[in-house]
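A.,

Following up on our hallway conversation. Structure tokens first:
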């Protein structure tokens, strides 16, 4: 086995795609519970954790930071959390705003599509190099 690091970027993009997918699921769950009394909006934290992992690296170049972060990818998992659990603008104590959720869903879908396109481009580049 050759440890070239050629897949470091792809592995991180894959984790980012997992994070965006988890956020899509959380937003879809929020939309499904828009009329559930007492339901509190959920969101997913991943980008911040990935940024911390890259910034915590002692290396200077992005390639070196990605290689370093790849060693710890198993620990980088999207985590769901309750967004503003003690706040509600509705009488039924639900804090989901359907318009906000629809905007978040569209924004996150664009992000997910961009990540998957980047992964696809990385594999196209690898195929071109192999030829």
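Then the amino acids I'd put at each of the 131 positions:
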């Amino acid at each position: 086995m050759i440890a070239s690091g050629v897949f470091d970027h792809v592995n991180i993009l894959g984790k980012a795609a997992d994070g965006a997918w988890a956020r899509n699921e959380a937003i879809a769950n929020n939309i499904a519970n828009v009329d559930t009394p007492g339901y509190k909006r959920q969101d997913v934290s991943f980008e911040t954790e990935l940024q911390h992992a890259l910034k915590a690296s002692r290396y200077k170049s992005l390639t070196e930071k990605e290689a370093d972060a790849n060693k710890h990818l198993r620990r980088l998992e999207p985590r769901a959390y309750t967004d503003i659990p003690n706040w509600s603008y509705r009488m039924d104590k639900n804090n989901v705003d359907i318009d906000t959720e629809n905007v978040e869903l569209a924004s996150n879908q664009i992000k997910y599509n961009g990540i998957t396109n980047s992964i696809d481009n990385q594999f196209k580049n690898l195929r071109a190099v192999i030829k």
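The mean pLDDT is 86. Curious whether your intuition agrees with the design.

B.
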